[in-house]
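Quick illustration for those who missed Monday's session on complexes.
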Amino acid sequence: MEDHGGEAGNPVRTRVAVFGAGSWGTAFAMVLADAGCDVTLWGRRPEVVDAINTTRVNPDYFPDFVLPDGITATTDARRAAAGAAFAVLAVPSQTLRANLGAWTSLLDRNTVLVSLMKGVELGTTLLMSEVIAEVTGAGPDRIAVVSGPNLAGELIHRQPAACVVACRDEAVARQLQAACHTAYYRPYTNVDVVGCEIGGAVKNVIGLAVGIADGLGLGDNTKASLITRGLAETARLGLAMGADPRTFAGLAGMGDLVATACSPLSRNTSFGASLGRGMTLAQTVATTHRTAEGVTSCRSVRDLARRHGVAMPVTEAVVDIVHGGKPPRLAVKELMARSAKPERV
Ligand SMILES: NC(=O)c1ccc[n+]([C@@H]2O[C@H](COP(=O)([O-])OP(=O)(O)OC[C@H]3O[C@@H](n4cnc5c(N)ncnc54)[C@H](O)[C@@H]3O)[C@@H](O)[C@H]2O)c1
Ligand SMILES: O=P(O)(O)OC[C@H](O)CO
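Prediction with nicotinamide-adenine-dinucleotide bound:
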């Protein structure tokens, strides 16, 4: 086996269940296996699970990459959950509640639940950690989040990247850090779960805005302005929800926003570019078969902001364009016509 710098020599291999064999679930399973964990990857579709077990390839998401031996795939959630120290959740944010409802009784009381998701539940406006707590009854010491500039399409090449592993219990964050630390993947711990989740969810909305600007043919001044003001409104919301302001200057804030807004691999930014080029929401959805979380979460983020009395003009504009059919050029004009104000508000 190739050495990717993890804890492969460790005689007791950490058992990890990864739920969701989509792009990030598959790539993160590879990271964990490279770090020396014994990984069981749950997938919905038997043909994908069979392909992973027989050819070590996930044909739907990464047909050109051979996955490490430390991964076993299964459609049996009970088998995946059995004896897992960590249950990593990598399904779309809006389906988490239903998925978790089916898995909760299978999980051990000590298993730490790890969210890879970057969204806010529509209707409830709950963060993913809050959905996990509500559905499973787990306390904050058993709920963790992994976030940061982590495009699965780059990580599957084992290109160097850093991330944040956040848990209110720092000792648990350190255990998770050890479980996913490899020569190419560098996790930093944080105890600010809310800040990391807000950073991850809102960057998808700002990614849509930057994509829309790109699709309109606007240049780097416009995109940098959206990124910076987008980060300002992200931090405003986070602070209102009790987050640590420093988180937004870190990997789960600025880091993830820059990766998303600048990358052709980002589904949110690509989705926005399609809208900016004049495609409708329905046309764009019909040509996109991947999870672009910001499309739904822009509404939940907008609702969350209104509930906390926080101004999020870029997010409001994205909702108006994506769901209200507002012409993107009109939304840009209106954003620019807002009353003048000091930068640090
Ligand atoms: N792909 C990335 O680069 C990346 C990186 C960091 C975080 N994330 C986040 O990880 C989460 C998962 O994203 P992804 O990229 O793996 O998405 P994906 O669309 O590639 O995969 C989602 C997986 O969930 C499964 N699934 C289980 N139950 C489902 C249901 N009821 N409906 C639909 N699908 C269901 C799908 O079969 C699929 O395998 C998102 O919140 C995303 O923002 C993704
Ligand atoms: O493809 P996106 O836009 O969902 O972004 C993927 C990751 O969240 C980037 O960190």
